[in-house]
Amino acid sequence: MKVNVAQVRHRSGESIYFDLTEDFSPFELGTETFSFSAPVHVQLQVINTNKAVLVKGTIETELKVVCGRCLEPFDYPLNLPYQDEWVFPAQATEELLESALLLEKDDVDITQRISEQIVLALPMKFICSEDCRGLCLTCGVNLNQTTCSCKEDVVDPRLAALAKWQAND
After folding, report:
1. Which residues contact 157 (CB under 8 A, 6 or more apart)?
2. Residue 145: how many CA atoms within 13 Å on its side-chain side?
3. Which of 16, 23, 130, 143 is the most exposed place for a label (fewest CB within 10 A)?
4. Mean pLDDT of 45-65
C-alpha cells in the first residue's frame, strides 16, 4: 500500500486525499493465525504542515476470527481511526523519529504501519455477540444452538465451604 506525497511535499498547507484498497496476507499473533475476509480499505488525508506531514484517515476491514466463548468462526469488522506523522529529514530529531516516519522519498509504503494499527486494535478475546452463551462447562455443547440437561449448580469441591458460609449469613 503506497502513497505518493510529491504533490504536497514542497507546498506548505497543501493537502491530498487517498482512497486505497488492498488484500492483506494472513498474519500470526501468538499462537493464532488471522486472515482477512475483506480487503483493507484505507482513506487518508495527507497535509503538509511545513515541519512535517500529518496523515489522518480511517482503516476498514474484516477479520475471520473464532469466538472465545462458543468457538464458532465469525467475521469481526474493524473501523479504525488512523493518524500518523511523517517528518522531513531536515526537521528530524531523535524524539520525533521515535513516533514519526522519516519521509525520505515521495513514495511511502504504509503497509507496515496499517498492519500495526490493526494488530493494536484487536481485543484480547473475540466475542461473536454480547448474548453469546458459550459452551456448557460439563458436556461442551454450544448453548447458543441447543440446551443441555447438565446440572448447572455444580460446585467445585474446594469451594463448597464458601457456599455454606454464604447461606449462614
Report:
1. none
2. 8
3. 130
4. 90
Angle at 137 between CA 136 and CA 141, to 5 degrees: 30
> Would you state the cell numbers that stand for residue 28, as one nine-digit string?
500470526
CA-wise closest residue to 118 among 75, 65, 73, 80: 80
The residue-averaged pLDDT of 142-164 equals 78
Give residue 153's pLDDT. 65
Question: In which residue are the cell numbers 476498514 written?
Answer: 60
- Residue 39 makes CB contacts below 8 A (sequence gap 6+) with 21, 22, 23, 24, 61
Mean pLDDT of the chain: 85
- Grid coordinates representing 48? 503538509
Neighbours of 88 (CB within 10 A): 18
User: Residue range 153-161: average pLDDT?
Assistant: 73
In degrees, rounded to 5, the angle at the alpha carbon of residue 122 between the alpha carbons of residues 121 and 128 is: 130
Sign of CA dihedral 43, 86, 105, 16: positive
Q: What angle do CA 120, 21, 79 make, to 5 degrees?
A: 40
Q: Express each pLDDT in 93-117 by its tens digit.
A: 776 666 777 777 888 888 998 999 9
Q: 77 with 66: CB under 8 angstroms?
A: no
Give CA–CA dist 44/40, Å, rounded.
13
